[in-house]
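Good morning C.,

I know you're traveling, so I'll keep this short. The sequence:
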Amino acid sequence: MEYQETTSIVGKGSLNHFRLNPFRILNIPIETSIEEASWAAESLATMLAVGISPEGSNPISFLGVYSEAEIKKSFTQLEEPLERLVAEVFWFDLVNDPNAKPLTTYLNTSDINALIAYRSSTTTRIEESELTTSISEQINLANLNLLLGFAGLNDLPLGLEPIESDCPEDNKPARQTLEFTWKKMDGLSVVENPHLVLAKADDSISQRCTWASSLKASLFGWNKVLQHEEWGNYIRQKIERLQDDLLDDSTPELLKRIIINRLTELIAQEIKETIRENKYEFTRQLLQIASQVEMDSNSWRTALAPTKVFLQNEINQLAELLGEEADTTLKDIRNYFTAINRWKQQWIKVDPEDVMGGAYLTDEAVLRGFRALTQLELSQGTLQENEEILKLANDLAFNASVKEKVSYYSETLKELYKDLTCYFCQKRESDSSCPLILRGMQNTGEDENAIHYSTKFGYVPRCNRCGDLHNSINNWGLAISIPVYLTLIYYFILILIESEIPGIILGAVILIIGFLQRISISTFGYIVGAPFLVARSIIGTMVTPNGERNYGEADSSPQSMKLQAEGYDTTIWCKKFALEDAKALLNQQS
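The tokens, ready to paste straight into the viewer:
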């Protein structure tokens, strides 16, 4: 029969862990001398040279056969003492395990009954008497569970049914029918030995194990092996047998580190494969195992580092939603955070214990979107739109410092938007062409000819719509006050005509006006403009929509408070384009 290399298993690192073990390829016990191993390797090479396939002649035949190059490599591994030790502990010790017979049968024939018998009896022995069970038994069971776990994960048929609790609701194995033995006793029908029947049923159920529970049992088993008090002696016996000067008393601890690294790398490889194949339920179970097994955290971190590239690539793809920095819009940033939120929710389900470091990647993604948001012109959106995006960013973040950055910027935006949002309606964006003007005047001194004033303007942000409203209020106030002024002027002239002392009355009026100006220019303005101010105030109260500020409340604005604190008396110019008047006045003064 012509030999052909198989590629059915090649490339699956977890299965190659067993497939390419030199003791499996050469089909020799782990105690075999290097001379006997050399003879076995030459025999296999001869078989291949004459075209005879070794298929079926090696243990665990469902893993497939191997190439001539792999045979040579396996012998080379056995020549290196440390590599040989690693290969020995990751293969089956069929000499020192007192219960090795069914295990040997399974390895050579894939007999499922032998597998169940060995695993059931050995598991029971270890659970009942862990300290007195040989370390060889514990290693064999850990390796067997590792093999079954990886084989099941990669869809190799082993004849094992899943444990019911590990199955989806719609794919649970049929419940076992319990066969009780009934007998009559004192006129009643009773079950004979019910506890024995239930115990057998439980044992049968425990044998129907999923790949996930097998992997978990293997890693927990290896954890116990590495902490076993006989570990050092067990490895030293192997060192004495090998008689190699390169191995010393430090080897048992070194071997521990190698085993932990190998196990974590194998699990990490499977995590990487399940992510690549979008088998996220498998990924979730593998990560759950990783989070539950108490192995060195640095080993997990190192093993999973290459796998995180997949997550980082997904994040980088989502970053494309932000577009080019110069062209990024508020909508782009909202879409980006929404996509990151979907990604986060997916990975929380897959990796709730954050073994993969998804929380760190999420925080990095939040900061990327946050930086893009801080680069935008405030005019691109309203305060409410920005706050909604910032809330989403804050909810996404895991790290407290990231949340603080987002919260601080949110508070800063509120202050910035006070100058961008209309002070009166508090909803619309302000229009820089029509702010409400506060004219501040301050008496700076006087001489023989005049009283000198310092003029300063405050600008209360106002939207175009409120500017139109205030302009109408101003015009209506003026229209209503004109008849009042004309009436007052008519009666004042009438008084002067009919009075015997018109000159004295006119002089008194002028003196009062001058006195008021000296006291306060704003008081003077209020007295002289009283009819207009009263009319404008009444109309403003009537037409200002509920929930919005009246134009008169500009006196309570931060801009007005600042002018007053500096000693200025303020008056309100509420017509829409009073800004032009203010500029003209400033030009005259300069």
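Safe travels,
E.
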